[in-house]
Amino acid sequence: MFEVAELEQTVSTEEFQQQVPRLRERLLEAQARLQTAGFPVIMLFAGVDGAGKGETANLLSEWLDPHWIVTHAFGAPTAEEQERPEFWRYWRDLPPKGYLGIFLSAWYSEPLLLRAFEEISSAELDERLDKIVHFERTLVDDGALLLKFWMHLGKDQQEQRLTTLSADPTSSWRVTDRDWKHWRMYDKFAHAAEQMIMRTSTGEAPWTIVEGLDARFRSLKVGTALLGAIESRLDDEATAKKKASSGRKKKKKQDGRDAAKAVRPPTPKTVLSRLDLGSSLAKQQYREELEVLQARLNLLHRGALERRRSTIMAFEGWDAAGKGGAIRRITAALDARHCHVIMIGAPTDEELAHHYLWRFWRHLPRAGRVTIFDRSWYGRVLVERVEGFATQKEWQRAYAEINEFERELVEHGMVVMKFWIHISKREQTRRFKAREKTAYKRWKLTAEDWRNREHWNDYELAVNDMIERTSTTIAPWTLVEGDDKRFARVKVLRTVCERLEQALGMPVERELQLASGVQ
Amino acid sequence: MFEVAELEQTVSTEEFQQQVPRLRERLLEAQARLQTAGFPVIMLFAGVDGAGKGETANLLSEWLDPHWIVTHAFGAPTAEEQERPEFWRYWRDLPPKGYLGIFLSAWYSEPLLLRAFEEISSAELDERLDKIVHFERTLVDDGALLLKFWMHLGKDQQEQRLTTLSADPTSSWRVTDRDWKHWRMYDKFAHAAEQMIMRTSTGEAPWTIVEGLDARFRSLKVGTALLGAIESRLDDEATAKKKASSGRKKKKKQDGRDAAKAVRPPTPKTVLSRLDLGSSLAKQQYREELEVLQARLNLLHRGALERRRSTIMAFEGWDAAGKGGAIRRITAALDARHCHVIMIGAPTDEELAHHYLWRFWRHLPRAGRVTIFDRSWYGRVLVERVEGFATQKEWQRAYAEINEFERELVEHGMVVMKFWIHISKREQTRRFKAREKTAYKRWKLTAEDWRNREHWNDYELAVNDMIERTSTTIAPWTLVEGDDKRFARVKVLRTVCERLEQALGMPVERELQLASGVQ
Q1: Is the reported ipTM for this assembly greater than 0.90?
Q2: A193-252 residue pLDDT tens
Q3: What residues make up the domain containing A179?
Q4: Measured between beta carbons, which residues in chain B are less than 8 angstroms from residue A85?
Q5: Distances from the Cα of B65 to the Cα of A9, B31, B33, B38, B234, angstroms
Q6: Contacts with B, A 141-160, CB within 8 Å
Q7: Which residue in A200, A308, A361 has the most chain B C-beta atoms within 10 A of its own C-beta, making it the best mutation to test that interface?
Q8: In-domain check, residue B246
Q9: For residues B158 and B211, is the Cβ–Cβ distance under 8 A?
Q10: B236 to chain A nearest CA, in Å?
């Protein structure tokens, strides 16, 4: 879940200095409109120590009109507070309509700490998180605009940050023993945080994960997100009013207004930019590895049947990325009676008449079997998002729906694997052209494939968001460097074997090595 | 929670025969419109054995066009089903758009049974219920119209029903040993069902509780509820479309259309009709009891302070029902430093700028103290509902919000008491007139009080719904017969004492009796 927030995103001083004055001006305008709009804004910051929760909150108070902002940090409950239910102090401090309330950690702090220190079980954490969901929903139902930011640092990044702060006498006071203690427990915190974010990223109050390494990046990211959320809510209400009073008007008028003051969120590196597309595998080595991996997979497949553990694989990737080829290298090692490949194209009439997840539910495998989806439920947040087939509300809600769907599968004992096969735009061109030339491959290429390329950047952003929001410990994404087909197929096969070995507790690799005399 | 569904509601044969043809005609019309409307209807029946779940489902299939209905009952999961996650079989059977799917018990069956047999704890039940809430929400978010009916019988009613069925050779096969076994466990089932209904009565998928004793009553109640829900959804969509295409139109046009075919839900007895307003207490007896009860309360109050258990009381009732007088008889026994009476009138500006529950959260007492609310958070589902200050969505959602609010209080250890003081309309007239005549009481009577009387029936219905949906084991309502003030005050005081004794584990009554030599 946090890979995307460890890409070392930065914003240059120039860009920052160019953007900030406009951003501040627009924030102040939005804040002025907010006062008569009749709803409160609640911002919540949680995250890794040192990732800039407090600094960002302070910066916002500086950028905005402080009369209408209140920031709340919470320590251990006071005697007064202990005498009331847990949420009493948060209720008390809720901002009135027209105000912006900034909450630091707040209701997320205790559950996260308790879980990281293993004082509560994962199920108990879920229970507490559900209470939070109730609470937040009550606020949003009443009209509050609730924005939640998880300020993130990778483990190494946090160490580096704490070290830097400690080294400087003017900031060393910021680093406490507690910070280092928590750093040593980083993995436990990250694990608990993932569960927390997954469960409380609801349609009405989603988390935004912000990489906290570069102060300019995080400030701009949070600032533009806040501005965007307030403006779009104010515009929605204005449009609704206008519609009610004078019928349909031309849309998008609001957008034109501020063209001169356009504010851009920082251009992010995506998680795909990290992949080394130069990875390749020589033919001979590919043949050898393929053979060993398929033997290994076959053993595991039989083991899974015996143990009645079923497997679900979802393949996504650019057109011509080689999904079909990778899938065939898997099915070659499986018993065809116990394995289904489902091509997901445009939905049938019957499927259209149901919930979008229904077509995936119906194809779930029986115990021990394998279902491979060539394209999957992720269409909702990829093609449907980019092409506008799903509304923004629908695809935003889909992340939580998908996480819940996969959780049900995993809790039932199914192994869930997800592959994104990535190729460069150049490689795609090459393959498209090759398809045009080869008669038996020509049917694979349609005008739509060329059209899709026009949205490459939108898709890349959608992929990035998808990985950030749905790559979980229980059902992680595997990103596959696909420019070299041999490399990609071997990586996919190896991942499948490793995930199965782990799930089944069957160290097949070792057995095979012994059998072939390799040590 | 179930008091309201044990009032022995009936519908006469004449009324039934008059209503049903119209109801069927309108249901068939609605069903025809539904086919092009693009959403499925999901009806779920759960409830007490013998309360008519299956019969009602069958009747609906008879009344409606069976082509577009599918009824699903579920036994223990088959092997096929066990190999998939719990909800797989429900997903599989979801109706497509335009169809009506009827589910019998379905996803509620197993959690309820497990809890009644104490195979899972109350917290584990909550966890399973939250999964159901997720599931239902996913369906509703996608547009499904979800209606849930709890078919109810009181314990005696169920016994009677099972006996009747057993006695008739044509129906005795319907009664199994299992039914009798469950009947003996009635209280456990009722307790689990209450928790279930409270937790899963969400704004988007509320339960309707239906008394199942009289077949005509329950059929008419379910039938009219189904019709109302489908028609209002279809009308909403039609209005939204019209609005979008041609600006604001005169509303309520739809309603006129069917005037000739008006269908009424059965006129319910309300829970208030059960109260014996003739209850009274002679002056001398009143004085004696008052003295003893106040002494008892004072002891308990001191015990609560020691034990740091706080108490919250909410008083609701008709204008001039005597709330103030009853409250003064309580405060007379309490230490004024540790007791607050909060009058809830029109909200202040500051309160208006917050969530409607905020003004109650802020007044929660410290440990051991008492807060008495003269009118309360129930205003949302009483005056705000009847006078239209809250939208239908808002007050419908409020039942769940209020239950959650009270649950947080009780889980924190607070004792929550709720009193509805009931008087007859005639008695109210008498008191109003008396107030007009007595100078020092005249300020109490406003023009508004007279106006409120015009909505008496609406209020009575709102009170009935309120009791049905918020009288829970952890925070039950006490209905007080108020035509005789002395009787009412003593009943309130006695209830307060009994609830406190129970909560504190302090059998003060016994102590006092011993002290005064009474056995």
Answers
A1: no
A2: 998 998 888 878 889 999 888 999 999 999 999 999 999 899 888 877 776 666 444 444
A3: 3-244+251-261
A4: 364, 408-409, 411-412, 414
A5: 60, 8, 12, 18, 18
A6: 141-142, 144
A7: A361
A8: no
A9: no
A10: 15
